[in-house]
Amino acid sequence: MTESSFSQWRPHPWHGLDIGRDPPVNVNAYIEITPFDLIKYEVDKNSGYLRVDRPQRTSSQPPALYGFIPRTYCGERTAALCPGALRGDGDPLDICVISERPIARSEVIVPARVVGGIQLLDRGEADDKIVAVLEGDYVWSHVTDLAALPTILVERLEHYFSTYKLIPGADLQITVQSVYGLYQATRVIEAAMADYREL
Asked: Which of 81, 75, 52, 72 is nearest to 114 (CA)?
């Protein structure tokens, strides 16, 4: 084994993992939350370990694997693609990965093929959610654009992200601006890659 073929120390999932074999279409997703989680986990930006962000307030559970694309950053270029955004959210680009077989573990790297995305505006910040399918999935691997997914799956994603920060009695701070296909998703990923390189 050569010295460059493995990491002596655990790489930081945001900065130390590879973005994927052929971005912006074939990317790696680092999974923070599974559809079985009732707690919102988020990678700690300093250590790279998962930390508890908050318990989910409602009964809504994430309808797909949820994490981020390594070596991306939602900054100025990403915000420019989201009408009404004052800035990007300052995090890596979020991704949801659809898999026919349940994956119950987080902190795993999932090879994914991008098919589209959901454009969110969260308190003036661009907060896109890229949608992808698990590479080699026996049910979903034929899907190449969001329009080919069942409408109910997309509706569940939209509902989750429009309500996952909902506080009863408070004004809703998040709006789903649009749902888009592969072309726009690749533009968002390329912008987030460029924002990361600048960062």
From this structure: 72
Q: What global pTM score does this model have? A: 0.93
CATH 3.90.80.10 for the 3-198 domain, yes or no: yes
The CA distance from 97 to 132, in Å, is 5
Average pLDDT over residues 6-34: 94
**By the 8 A CB rule, do 104 and 34 touch?**
yes
**Stretch 110-135: mean pLDDT, rounded?**
96
**Cα gap 118→168, rounded to integer Å:** 24
pLDDT tens-digit profile of 18-29?
999 999 999 999
Q: Tokens in use for 151?
A: 């409408």
For the chain, counts of helices (H) and of strands (E): 3, 10
Tokens of 65: 């694997």
Which residues face 122 on adjacent strands? 125, 174
- Angstrom distance (rounded) from CA 33 to CA 50: 10
Report the candidate in 106, 101, 76 with the shortest Cα–Cα distance to residue 90.
Answer: 76
Is the C-alpha dihedral spanning 168, 173, 179, 182 positive or negative? negative
Distance from the Cα of residue 31 to its chain's centroid: 8
Q: Are 95 and 71 in contact (CB under 8 A)?
A: no
The DSSP secondary structure of 70-85, one letter per residue, reads TT---SHHHHHTSTT-
